[in-house]
């Protein structure tokens, strides 16, 4: 379908979408014996029956290719004090998992001390624009008490106030 109006400026689109508060999560997987992970905030539940989620990945991200190859991945929801963990997984070119005591469920690496997690199996992948949209069935879920790390206007927030500064990963 052709757009009905002239192309929207990408900077204006990012700035406007930044006005939508989201949670922050880490997607993790293991493909070909190598760990992969990245910070995401483009994540939503799709269905309760069956339990489905949707995650969007930049197609140039190594984790996007790893998730496609593995077919299984974890999503760890970050606590309000885990802004540095989010920044760590947003940085390119470093070992994101160094020093972390991971736990595994069904071969999927999960991060320690998070607010909750999902173990997912890819159902469908759609390519749109510069992103892949992955729809996955949730095969395991667990939640813990605590408060979420939020992302709004290019910064981290906690319920009721700021929680630190976010490094470049969305803007």
Fold topology:
Layout: H1 10-17, E1 22-23, E2 25-31, E3 34-40, E4 43-47, E5 52-58, H2 62-70, E6 72-77, H3 83-90, E7 103-105, E8 108-110, E9 116-128, E10 131-143, E11 150-152, E12 155-158, E13 161-164
Antiparallel strand pairs: 1-11, 2-3, 2-6, 4-5, 5-10, 6-9, 7-8, 9-10, 11-12, 12-13
Please describe what this structure looks like.
- The protein contains 3 helices and 13 strands.
- The chain has helices at 10-17, 62-70, 83-90; strands at residues 22-23, 25-31, 34-40, 43-47, 52-58, 72-77, 103-105, 108-110, 116-128, 131-143, 150-152, 155-158, 161-164.
- The mean pLDDT is 89.
- It starts with 9 loop residues before the first helix and ends in a 7-residue tail after the last strand.
- The protein is mainly β and 171 residues long.
- It has one domain (22-164): Roll (Pnp Oxidase, Chain A).
- The longest helix has 9 residues, at 62-70.
- A hairpin with a 2-residue loop joins strand 9 (116-128) and strand 10 (131-143).
List keywords for this structure.
4-stranded antiparallel sheet, 13 strands
Rg calc: 16 Å
Distance between the termini: 28 Å
Order of helices and strands: HEEEEEHEHEEEEEEE
Class from secondary-structure proportions: mainly beta
Please list the strands of the largest sheet in the order they lie side by side: 3-2-6-9-10-5-4
What do we call the CATH homologous superfamily? Electron Transport, Fmn-binding Protein, Chain A
């Amino acid at each position: 379908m052709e757009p009905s109006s002239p192309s929207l400026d990408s900077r204006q689109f990012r700035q406007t979408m930044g006005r939508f508060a989201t949670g922050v999560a880490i997607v993790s997987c293991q493909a070909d014996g190598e760990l992969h992970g990245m910070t995401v905030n483009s994540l939503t539940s799709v269905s309760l029956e069956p339990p489905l989620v949707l995650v969007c990945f930049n197609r140039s991200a190594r984790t996007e290719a790893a998730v496609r190859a593995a077919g299984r991945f974890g999503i760890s929801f970050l606590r309000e004090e885990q802004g540095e963990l989010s920044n760590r997984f947003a940085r390119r070119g470093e070992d994101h998992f160094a020093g972390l005591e991971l736990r595994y469920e069904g071969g999927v690496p999960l991060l320690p001390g998070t607010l909750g997690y999902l173990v997912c199996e890819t159902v469908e992948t759609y390519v749109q624009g510069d992103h892949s949209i992955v729809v996955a069935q949730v095969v395991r879920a667990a939640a813990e008490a605590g408060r979420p790390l939020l992302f709004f206007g290019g910064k981290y927030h906690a319920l009721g106030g700021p929680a630190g500064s976010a490094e470049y990963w969305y803007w």
